Amino acid sequence: MRALSCGRQVLAALSTVALLGGCALGSAGQESAGAPRPVGAVTMVVPFAAGGGSDISGRAMADGLVSVRPELRVDVDNREGGQGAVGYSYLLSKAGSPNYLLATETSLLSLPLSVDVAFSHRSFTPIMKLGEDYTLLVALPSSPITSCADAVAQSRQRRVLAGISGAVGPDAVVFSQLERLSGADFDTVPYEGGGETMAAVLGGQVELASLNPSEVMGQLRAGELKALCVFADQRYDYPQLAGVPTSVEQGIPVSFAQFRGVIAPGGLSPQATEFWLEAARAFAGSPAYRDYVASEFLQPRVAFGEDFAAYLADSEKALAQVVRR
């Protein structure tokens, strides 16, 4: 896998964060640090651009939390940059404050494994794992590539450009596994989120893209894209995706699930941690959660607090086998 844009983007963005870091913990963060519960508006940080899977997840979680805690106001703040590092670094500066949450996914683990950042998943307070999300390999209907196996074969013979969300994110992990396990050789082009990746494949800047079902379902239905495979060992049960073959079916032994979740800053008081855990559990039992899972085609595998932390630790070990600095 030859990345046409690399970790220098991450480091440049982090340099900006470092310059601003001294004043990032402004008065709002300082006043709420150590509080037993949020006071005033809560900010849901999305570390990627609007329009992608993380943005959809963050907005669904914000609305869902309000649906079970009507006294809350949760505003969404897209802080994209550095393949997610800018958003995570911003949350790092809010230590102790219960007024901030972040819509997290697998970049929380892959970033610290691949570039020099000041955080790991242990820097934050795990609140809830919402579910798991398998990506689809998609292309324009006019593409000569007809399957996941065909994409691998053609990548060995000619230059094939593939769009991914983040140079070190979950899509990069998928293509790294493709290279390691099947001998593929794609030129990957990182973008800041699924929305930009979608635009690139629709506009013909790249031939392939690895995208979540929720990001591409409209285009699949409209015939603007075709799904070559899902990177999983079992097909989706959802009727809209049941006809998409798995990579494993096609002889490509690559299966990778991205998680979706929500974290809070590190250093929360026990009372604040319990406040958000109770709200998350209420959300998980609500119609809003069921609607979110169905609309995003997720596997509803939830975990809270310490169980979510254990999941992150186990996943970090697995990712370390394929993600390297």
TrEMBL record:
Pfam families xrefs: TctC (PF03401)
PANTHER family with a match to the protein in the record: BLR4371 PROTEIN (PTHR42928:SF1), TRICARBOXYLATE-BINDING PROTEIN (PTHR42928)
Segments forming a coiled coil: none
InterPro entries the record matches: BUG, Bug_dom1
Domain of life, source organism: Bacteria
Family that this chain belongs to: Belongs to the UPF0065 (bug) family.
UniProt protein name: Tripartite tricarboxylate transporter substrate binding protein
